[in-house]
Amino acid sequence: MLEWLRDIFWPKPRKAALVWLPKGTPSPEVHGISPPGSQEDIQAPLQWLDPSTTPFSTPVLDCRSITRGVVSTAQDQATLDRYAALRNDAGEHLGRAGADELHTTVCDLAYPLEPGVTALPEGRRYSSRRLEYKWDIAHWDGHLLFSRSWTGALVYRCRAEVVGSTLRIHTIETPVLDDIRPASDAFVRAAVDFLVRALLMGQVTPHPMPEIFGDDLRAYAVWSFREFGCDARFGFLVPP
User: Fold this and answer.
1) Which residues, other chains included, contact 230 with Cβ-Cβ below 8 Å and sequence gap of 6+?
2) How far apart are CA 88 and CA 77, in angstroms?
3) Cα–Cα distance between 14 and 11 in angstroms, integer?
4) Predicted pLDDT at 151
5) 147: which DSSP letter?
6) Given this model, what pLDDT does residue 178 score?
7) Cα–Cα distance, 114 to 166 (Å, whole number)
8) Strand, helix or coil at 70?
C-alpha cells in the first residue's frame, strides 16, 4: 500500500496558513517564526556527500543547514496577503494560462499507483503551508500544474495520464518569458521529477541545481532554498 497516494487522491485537511499576526504570540509551527528543520538539519555541515554515504546514485550537496535552517520573510503586507489568498485557490485557471511562447520538454516520467486507481481527481493536490514551502500543485483537465506559492505563477504544465497502474508524464510545458532564459530540458525533467517525489509522494529525494556557481557551496544552497524552499535537502548538478 503506497501511503503517499492517500495525500494525492484524498488529501488531509491542512492547517490554515496564518503568516501575519501583529498581535499575540503565534505558534512557531504554524506562523513560521522558527526554522522548519530539525536540529540535525540545522547543524548539518554544508558539504558534498559521496554516493557511498547516501541512498543516492550521484554526489549531492547537503543544503539542509540553509534550506531547512532559515525562516522566510516577506517585504510587505501585500506579499503576505497574496500568499494567504492563494491557499484557497484551487488552481483551475492555471490550466488555461497562456503565454506568447511555450517550451515543450519531452520526457518519460513514471510513478506507481495503487491498484484500482484509473484517473486523477481534479483540484488542488498540494498546498504550501508556510512561507518556506515555495510550490503549489493542482490537477485540472489532464494536466499537473506546478505554480509558485508566493505569486501563483505557473512554472510547469505537464500532461499526465494513468496507464495501467502507473502515472505517466510525457511532456512538460514551460512558459518562455522575456526576462528569464529557459532552463535546459535536463533541468526541467529533473525539477518536475523532484517536485512529484518530494511534494506528492513525500520522499526525501535530491533536487537539481544549475551548474553556475563554481565552488561556492553557499551560493548553491541559497539558490536551492529560493527555488525549492525547505523541501530541498540534497542537491545535484545538472546543465543550466
Assistant:
1) 36, 37, 67, 68, 132, 133
2) 18
3) 8
4) 93
5) E
6) 59
7) 8
8) coil
Alpha carbon of residue 64 to chain centroid: 15
Burial of 16 (0-12, 13-18, 19+ CB in 10 A): exposed
**Which H or E run contains 228?**
helix 217-228
Mind listing the pLDDT tens digit for each residue in 162-178? 888 899 999 999 988 75
Find, among 151, 238, 223, the residue nearest to 193 by Cα.
238
Indicate the pTM of the whole model: 0.84
- pLDDT tens by residue, 110-148: 999 878 878 888 888 999 988 999 999 999 999 999 999
In the numeric block, which cell numbers belong to residue 93?
485557471
Query: Residue 169 contacts by C-beta under 8 Å, 6 or more apart in sequence?
Result: 107, 108, 109, 110, 144, 158, 159, 160, 192, 196
Q: How many CB atoms lie within 10 A of CB 144?
A: 24
